[in-house]
Amino acid sequence: MESAIEFLTTLHWGAVFQIILIDILLGGDNAVVIALACRNLPQHQKMKGILWGTAGAIILRVILIAFAVTLLQVPFLKLIGGALLIWIGIKLVAPGDEDAHGNLEGGSTLFAAIKTIIIADLVMSFDNVIAIAGAANQADPDHQLGLVIFGLLVSIPLIVWGSTLVLKLIERYPLVVTAGGALLGWIAGGMMITDPVAVGQIGEPSSTLKYAVSAAGALLVVVWGMALNRRRKAPGAAH
Fold this sequence. Notes:
The protein is mainly α.
């Protein structure tokens, strides 16, 4: 009990908020995958498919993120992870037209549906894993895995049961998506400037430098993403 209270009192709430926002923005596909995977199940098994499939996906993602958080201590990997996050943020601000779910088939048995949800989540969760690992990396190393689990436990129900509301909010206020892209760019900048290679070259970054690089990452994602959007919407642009 005391350890749980200590964990909550020392929790990096900024990182928790970032993890929840990242998982909602980048995890909207999860609700679609779950619905498609369970659509062929008998009515009395659909809720079981949703619950067990979601549980399996959460466990798998926690394992992947735990590895990612550890690997981010290796030289150059924060630089690579930061570059990937910038790319993911730009894709969020300026999404393509491809449909990632067109060929996803629903399972006819409970086991098949659960397997489909877990495999699809594994394939689709790369961006979530990198982004959440980057957000968790700001916290105390002793609390990073607990932080990830806490953030996922809060955000997954929002995705599964509140996806319609979230999607309507995003459709009504596109600025939410732009803010999410900026957040990914911010995390990317903070990751890259604290990579062991960067620290070896310039020393431990000051708070001012870290904020400046983080802000530059956020600005890069927003400007690049908006430029791509304008280019796609321009008359005569190829689709």
